[in-house]
Amino acid sequence: MHEDIAAIRDDFPILSRSVGDEQLVYLDNAATTQTPEQVYDVFEEFYAGYNANVHRGIHTLSHEASVAYEEAHDRLAEFIGASGGREELIFTKNTTESINLVAYGVGLNELGPGDNVVTTEMEHHASLVTWQQVAKRTGADVRFIRVDDDGKLDLEHAAELIDNDTQLMSIVHVSNVLGTVNPVEELTELAHEQDALVFIDGAQAVPNRRVDVEEIDADFYAFSGHKMAGPTGVGCLYGKHHLLESMEPFLYGGEMIRHVTYEDSTWNRPPWKFEAGTPPIAEGIALAAAADYLDDVGMDFVEERENELAQYALERLTERDDVEVYGPPLGEARSGLVAFNLDGVHGHDLSALLDERGIAVRAGDHCTQPLHDRLDIPGSVRASFYVYNTTDEIDQLLDALDVARDELDSHLASEQYHDLVY
Ligand code: PMP
């Protein structure tokens, strides 16, 4: 194992726990990454040192909490290349809430019959369901950019779909099933040529590569803390400042107002206008520590490492003739995950058998049912990697596939089981 990786693994004590009698092999990072000491120590520092509500008190603890919380916004803005700092960076609960914030703020207010939203066939339900429901309520259409057989977006189709009536394009930066890295800059340019706003779901991108929202020229960009070595309960929404200024709030309540009378209210400035009620204070501060941690490791290194692990896994999986893998073929850029199926074995059975060996993967539709329909499969098994994973762990996964194959062949190779799977 590379010396750096051993040192990185030491920062994540959970990686040395066992599952039953086996050493944990954690390959479910696209769902949630593990959290290093440097990040969860922040919770102890906060709760033992300066726990208080923000923005409401004149006392020292409230002041300290407010400063740390506000600076955390600046840190996350910097992490994704947003030069406007905190005024362009809203803390939400997660990517899902960030998408809903834009759907309520822009979608429900701006869309109407005759308008369309352009999205892709590879969206996570967080975005797909949201735009679908906004479209139902406003009378707008949703159009889906096709995914080709290599798991890539058909850019000619995108150019046909984006037209004068496109108010918004909502695309995923990196697919959580195919691992495809979409050409978001090119697509954003196409959408802007038609004066459409661009929302990007970066849940699988920000953890794994250097993202610069200004280079992409995204109008809105969302991601989650728990997928980037940060805590659960906090996510981010970037928005260009002038758009956040003019956008309607999503949630009403304390903190987000400027002046309230019995008759009417006015709004605070961004980002506080979009952070009603007590926000995720400790979580936000810990997320800034996660950004520091990732920058210390180096985002270029994280990206390189993930690509290496994905290529290795792909190579080993495609050697087998009983495995089908999805997404861009070997040698092409992809994020650190591989979704696959082992011939004749239901994903949930495989996942349970792998768990008996301490290997954590995910099986199911990964919140992309329409994409699985498009691939004509009921579900898939997804192994997803982070900077701390090793090729040894991938070898263990592959060895376990053989064992699983044998066990299932002997116990379940009945016609009845085959009928259940297919
Ligand atoms: N979009 C993508 C591409 C994702 O992978 C996920 C998480 N699986 C989400 C959105 C939703 O993230 P969250 O559950 O943190 O809101």
From TrEMBL:
Residues 25-397 form the Aminotransferase class V domain. It catalyses: (sulfur carrier)-H + L-cysteine = (sulfur carrier)-SH + L-alanine. One of its GO terms (molecular function) is iron-sulfur cluster binding. This is cysteine desulfurase. Its EC number is 2.8.1.7. Keywords: Plasmid, Pyridoxal phosphate, Transferase. The keyword Cell inner membrane does not apply. One of its GO terms (biological process) is cysteine metabolic process. Its cofactor is pyridoxal 5'-phosphate. It comes from the Archaea. It is an enzyme of class 2 (transferase). The keyword Transferase applies.
